[in-house]
Automatic annotation (TrEMBL):
Source superkingdom: Eukaryota
Protein name: Histone deacetylase domain-containing protein
Co-factor(s): Zn(2+)
Lineage of the organism: Eukaryota, Viridiplantae, Streptophyta, Embryophyta, Tracheophyta
Alphabetic keyword roster: Chromatin regulator, Hydrolase, Repressor
The organism of origin for this protein: Brassica napus
SUPFAM superfamilies linked: Arginase/deacetylase (SSF52768)
Length: 417
């Protein structure tokens, strides 16, 4: 019996030892696995932090801003969320903050567009914006005073930032989503118009001139990676110099910048002007005919010098005769006041402005679309600046002309509907 008890005890000890050893071995293996995972995660994080291009690539590839647009939609992008309404304070800036809605309303009422065929974009997230912007810049927008400076509406500084985010910055982010999506649509269908966007004064690190986010820079970075585009031409015909995209992209050989602007007005960014590949300065008093002649020559030179795979056309209408921000900054306004007070010659006030007629805007847009479409180059149009109530009508008329000329298609075939 004693021998049996010894054997039984020995068996129990052996079994317990085996279980203990198995548990210990398993624990070691699990610990090693967890450590390797942690180390891999840490190295991946380190790699992303030390390689910003890898992080940018990851953000672009994971973005939801590109999505498939059904054939029942045309290549015109707009959302009611574009429009800025903030207890009437938006009226303190000369920019027509409902311009975008009114453009689409005219197109629908004139029979050139069905409301149900308009494409609504997604709003750009912080991750999307970080493709170009720094985290410190995005954090700076948590200060209402910063947003007030960018939008040039001082009372905004006194509102809680959550309201500023919702009422001011969210519409801008929605328009950014529209600009980015427009590139995808243009590549697929030959053209796209974002009835908004064109925030060409904003750089990766600083906003200004009613531009809080660098949608043009973002659009191009997305196109490089997601659309396999390797050469982009920016044609900026807003009255003001496009110092934002020039600062961000001016040293990128894949981007060619044609900027036709009035050097006598904001932003006076001489540093950014160094990055313009083709600079066409349009002085105050330029007539429609002279402007269009300059544009013809500029387009001929641009497409001779550079063969783009996509055109981003910043089609600001603030070159219109009488636009109030043809004289945006105090120094220029002072010049006008002096002439008025001391010379009492109203005609001189008119000659200080670029005097492009509404028909001139229509011709301008047609020239840009024609030169791109004839070469089968996808073209993205952004409406950018334009500060009179009449601008919406002028933009709509120009889009309708593009449709009549067969350069774009705003009406769907019955089979598509």
């Amino acid at each position: 019996m004693k021998d049996v008890r010894v054997i039984s005890t020995w068996t129990d000890l052996t079994r317990d030892s085996a279980v203990y050893l198995l548990f210990t071995f398993s624990a070691i293996k699990v610990s090693q696995f967890i450590y390797r995972c942690f180390q891999s995660s840490e190295m991946s994080s380190f790699s992303m932090e030390t390689h910003p291009e890898a992080l940018r690539r990851e953000r672009i590839l994971s973005s939801k801003l590109y999505f498939n647009v059904p054939e029942s939609k045309v290549s015109i992008i707009y959302s009611s969320a574009y429009d800025i309404s903030f207890m009437g304070i938006e009226k303190l800036h000369p920019f027509d903050s409902t311009k975008w809605r009114r453009v689409c309303k005219f197109l629908v009422s004139d029979g050139f567009l069905e409301e149900k065929s308009i494409v609504e974009p997604l709003e750009a997230s912080n991750s999307d914006l970080l493709v170009v912007h720094s985290l410190s810049y995005l954090n700076s927008l948590k200060s209402s005073a910063t947003v007030a400076r960018i939008t040039e509406v001082p009372p905004v500084a006194f509102f809680p930032n959550f309201l500023v985010q919702q009422k001011v910055l969210s519409p801008f982010r929605k328009q950014v989503g529209g600009t980015i999506l427009a590139a995808k649509l243009a590549v697929e269908r030959g053209w796209a118009i974002n009835v908004g966007g064109g925030f060409h004064h904003c750089t990766a690190e600083r906003g200004g001139g009613f531009c809080a986010f660098a949608d043009i820079s973002l659009c191009i970075h997305f196109a490089f990676l997601r659309l396999s585009i390797s050469r982009v031409m920016i044609i900026d015909l807003d009255a003001h110099q496009g110092n934002g995209h020039e600062t961000d992209l001016g040293d990128d050989s894949r981007v060619y910048i044609l900027d036709m602007y009035n050097p006598e007005i904001y932003p006076y960014d001489y540093s950014a002007r160094r990055f313009i590949d083709q600079k066409v300065e349009v002085m105050s008093g330029t007539s429609t005919d002279e402007y269009l002649r300059k544009l013809d020559k500029a387009l001929e030179v641009a497409f001779r010098n550079f063969q783009p795979e996509m055109v981003v056309y910043n089609a600001g209408t603030d070159i219109l005769d009488g636009d109030p921000l043809g004289l945006l900054k105090a120094s220029y306004t002072l010049k006008v006041i002096i002439i008025f007070l001391f010379e009492q010659n109203v005609s001189n006030l008119v000659t200080l402005l670029v005097q492009i007629s509404p028909d001139g805007i229509t011709s301008r847009d047609e020239k840009v679309f024609r030169v791109a479409r004839e070469r089968e180059i996808p073209v993205v149009m952004l409406t950018s600046g334009g500060y009179m109530k009449s601008n919406a009508r002028v933009i709509a008329d120009s889009i309708e002309n593009l449709s009549r000329q067969g350069l774009i298609k705003t009406q769907l075939d019955s089979a598509s509907t």
